[in-house]
Amino acid sequence: MKKRLPFYLKLTPVLLVLSLLFIAISFLPGTHKVALAAHIPPTPTPAPTPPPGTPWLLENYAQTTCDVQGNPSFELVTYYGVWINGTWTRPITVSITHAPTGATSWPTYTDPLPRGSSNGIGGVTELAVQILGTTPLGTYTMYLVATDGKLTQRVPITLVVKTICATY
User: Roughly how many angstroms between the first and final C-alpha of the chain, as a whole number?
Assistant: First the structure.
């Protein structure tokens, strides 16, 4: 007499196939949007030196990031590195200006930076920027600003808002 398989064992392969099918569908192009993390270029070497009479220099490494319009707010956060070359005797505060309407930004490490020095090769901190899901498509030039209260420097940074961030 042939032993019959229980019903749940017959159903298990069907559920497994359906689960794999749903997982595969979720990876098809156009079924979901993914925000591309910040594109921070490799740190060049050597870094430019501060101009004569300037104790420190905010480095400009032409940073560009991309966010996907309409993504949930937790996916609309991008990061910009801060590189400073030289020695500072006063705390340095960093911020971002000219962000799109409704955007917020905040330092992710120490703020302000305590007195110190850096060779401009390694980042000393970074700033996060979060935009709204309704931010209009386009390219936004913002400014990364560093100040010790006496000396203020700024460098341009770029945020691109697109429907897809595969290339920007």
Answer: 68
Which has the higher per-residue pLDDT, 105 or 18? 105
Q: CA-CA distance, 159 to 99, in Å (whole number)? A: 9
- CB under 8 Å to 130, separation ≥6 — which residues? 73, 76, 77, 103, 104, 105
Instruction: Decide if 71 contacts 33 (C-beta within 8 A).
Output: yes
Q: Where are the alpha helices (DSSP H) in the chain?
A: 7-26
* Cα–Cα distance measured from residue 74 to residue 142, given in angstroms and rounded to the nearest whole number: 21
What's the CATH architecture for 33-162? Sandwich (2.60)
If you search the block for the tokens 């905010």, which residue do you land on? 58
pTM of the model: 0.66
Convert the pLDDT of each residue in 132-157 to its tens digit.
888 999 999 999 999 999 999 999 99
Backbone CA torsion sign across 75, 99, 42, 112: negative
Instruction: Report d(CA 115, CA 97) in Å as an integer.
Output: 23
Per-residue confidence (pLDDT) for residue 7, from 0 to 100: 56
| Domain spans, the chain | 33-162
